[in-house]
Write a structure and sequence with these properties.
Length: 304
Amino acid sequence: MKNFLLLGLTIALLGAQEIKAQEHRFDPPWNNPPESALNFTVPGIDNIPDLYGDIENPQLTVFFAGNQFMVVDDLLASFKKEYPQYERIFVETLPPGILAKQIKGGSITIGNLRITHKPDIYTASKRAINEMADYFSHTQVYCYNNICLMIPKGNPANIRTLNDLGNDKVRISMPNPQWEGIGEQIKASYKKAGGEQLVKKIMDDKVKDGSTYLTKIHHRESPMRVLYGQADAAPVWASEVVYQKLIGHPVEGITIPDAQNTTATYVAAKLKNAPHAQAADDFLKFMDSPTAKNIYKKYGFTVD
């Protein structure tokens, strides 16, 4: 009897450990970390997926629109190959609205880390760049993106259209327009699909009952909520579905018709007070190259 109880306890503990291990199986960082003497990334505890590279004395600092985190590995590797003089590069891929506040305020704190770096380059939607035009000495368009729905593989909620998101039982991971520009664009798509009634249902009624979850950083939260079974659907950029599938995560995408969709135009801007002006010029030149454009196409962006 004693041995039986010990065996049962052992099985229970192993089962608990397996469940705990599975809790973080889809956690970021999804990019490849830089080489270092020690990697101390602890899922759910010490993990900063939207800060990249060398934070000490960088030779180039880029603030990328957050939904472009997936291009960073390939883009920086190719840039360094063409411009080997730039060995230390620091990149942030936080939501563009947060990056804009960081630029205007001069600093940001994440956890216990305070960052005061000034960017050389800031990328965001055309609208966001136009709103800060006085900050920039040069701007250039470099890619485009459309909205789609990310769903779990197999589509268990049987979602087909934007109007299906109005179902009381459908759980949505929705970018909060207060924090992320994509939120307003998705609201515009809801209005095109189902009028103000659908907008109110998703953004008011379902927020109140908890079936619409508003994110602060949708390019991390929405995939994770879908992957961990916390959301039945998440409106995201098409590139985000492409990337999650590329790294083997069990998601699918639902195309939104052109008449209900929005195309984002992304612009790279050089700051007037860029600390590394020549590096900024070189990076903007690289962003216009066939190499950079092919990298963006690989991850589901369009460049023409």
